[in-house]
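Can anyone check this?
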Amino acid sequence: MNKLFRILTLLLVFSGLTLEVQASVFRLTPPPTLIINGQSVVQGQFTLEGLSGIDLSLNEIIALDPADSADDIMHTALIGSNVQTNLISDLDFPVLKFNYTFDAVIPDLIPIQANVLNAAMNFTIFLPMQTGGVDFYQVTDHLGNTSFFSVAPMLSLVPTKSIFIDLIGDQTIFANFDAGTMLDPTLYKPHGNVSWVPIPGAVWLFATGLIGLIGTRKRLHFLPSL
C-alpha cells in the first residue's frame, strides 16, 4: 500500500498540476419511475451514511461522516418529481465512494443498503428490483458503465483478479473482483442521478486510485523516495 501511495504521489508531483479547490454540491435527482417488489414506489427516504474523497487543499484522503455536515443526512425522494436534492451542499473535494440506505415509505418496503465506487462526475445510482437481498457494491467507471458485485473491490495499479474494471480508462487504476462475485445487472434499476461540480480532470486519476484504500485520514507526502 505504501508503494502505491509513493507511485501515485510522485506522478502527481511530476504532472505539474495546480491543485485548486472548487466548491461542489453532491446532488441527487430521483428517477421518473421506480419498481421494487413489483410495486411502484412513490416516495422514499434516502439516507447518506458515509462518503470518501480527496481534500485537495490539505492533500489528504477524507472519510466524511455526513452527520457531521450542516446538511440533513435523510432526504425525501419523490419519484417522478425531478426535484433535485442537495445531499451535501458545500464540498471542497470530489466524492468518489459513498454508501447509503433507501427506505421506500409509499409503499412501505424493507430498507435497501448500497455501496458505490464511482469514477464519473455525473452518473446513475441503482437499486435492486427486490428487497431482502445481500448488500451490493455498484462500480461505475469514467464512462458511466456500471457493474454490480457482492463484495467490495480491491483497487490496484494492475489487474490482480479474474474480473477487473479499468476505472479511469487509461489502464492505470483497476477495481478487481474474484470470479463469482458479479451480480446480474438486470436485477437492478436506476434510482436517479448523482452529480456535482467537476474538478480539474487530471486529478481524477489520483483521487479514484486512492479512495477505498484508507478508512481514515492519511497525509500524502509530495516528495516520496521510491
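Reply from J.R.: I decoded it. The longest strand covers residues 43-55.
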